[in-house]
Design goal:
The complex is a heterodimer of chains A (about 120) and B (about 120). Chain A is about 0% helix and about 55% strand. The termini of chain A are far apart. Chain A has about 120 residues and is mainly beta. Chain A has one domain: Immunoglobulin-like. Chain B has one domain: Immunoglobulins (Immunoglobulin-like, Sandwich). Classes of the chains: A mainly beta (about 120), B mainly beta (about 120). The interface between A and B is medium-sized, with 31 and 36 residues.
Chain lengths: ~120, ~120
């Protein structure tokens, strides 16, 4: 079952511009995570935001979470060609269950292209 | 850094063959996961395991089985491969937490399986 839906599906920008990707989800969550995937490779974790947090920063990344709207956004500032990749949101949801950390449901991803 | 190693980067099999996809992680993680990734469908969870010899069905377990005889190794088995199982298969692992408040996944590089 798909939980997160990213928007837009594809985004093309110039180097130096900011890139914003959005994620919406359907059910209550414990946390929401963002991952990056370079073409044909595995995913790499970028940032995790918990359900009681509203904003989080990591380097050039800024993530916001609005649990009332069931949505999150990922902002990449001053983008570089090396940021070209697919970006996925993933949710860990509902009632905390002991010993079941890490069971994530992924969205379909946003494909970001940053042109030099 | 955590390393999750998948035994094959590319694999070509014939319909009806039994296929083994192997995954090994080196950080003593309790949790291990198998996802498949298809264009337009994102990542979908096939099976996961929270401990040795334990397994839980994900969202799309049909046609698959798993084995976890040792903590560091999680195998995905296609009992009789079919063309609709052509996909990118991603293995992941994560640390366990008592409060189940979220742990990031570490992914392998993926196995692109083609069933002819």
């Amino acid at each position: 079952s798909q939980q997160g839906e990213e928007d837009p599906q594809a985004l093309s920008i110039q180097e130096g511009e900011n890139a914003t990707m959005n994620c919406s989800y359907k059910t209550s969550i414990n946390n929401l995570q963002w991952y990056r995937q370079n073409s044909g490779r595995g995913l790499v974790h970028l940032i995790l935001i918990r359900s009681n947090e509203r904003e989080k920063h990591s380097g050039r990344l800024r993530v916001t979470l609005d649990t009332s709207k069931k949505s999150s956004s990922l902002l990449i500032t001053a983008s570089r060609a090396a940021d070209t990749a697919s970006y996925f949101c993933a949710t860990e949801g509902g009632t905390p269950i002991y010993n079941q950390g890490g069971k994530l449901i992924f969205g379909q991803g946003t494909e970001l292209s940053v042109k030099p | 850094d955590v390393k999750v190693t998948q035994s094959s980067r590319y694999l070509v099999k014939r319909t009806g063959e039994k296929v083994f996809l192997e995954c090994v992680q080196d950080m003593d993680h309790e949790n291990m996961f198998w996802y498949r990734q298809d264009p337009g469908l994102g990542l979908r969870l096939i099976y996961f395991s929270y401990d040795v010899k334990m397994k839980e069905k994900g969202d799309i377990p049909e046609g698959y089985s798993v084995s976890r005889e040792k903590k560091e190794r999680f195998s995905l088995i296609l009992e009789s491969a079919s063309t609709n199982q052509t996909s990118m298969y991603l293995c992941a692992s994560s640390q366990d937490r008592e409060d189940s408040r979220g742990e990031k996944l570490f992914f392998g590089s993926g196995t692109q399986l083609s069933v002819l």
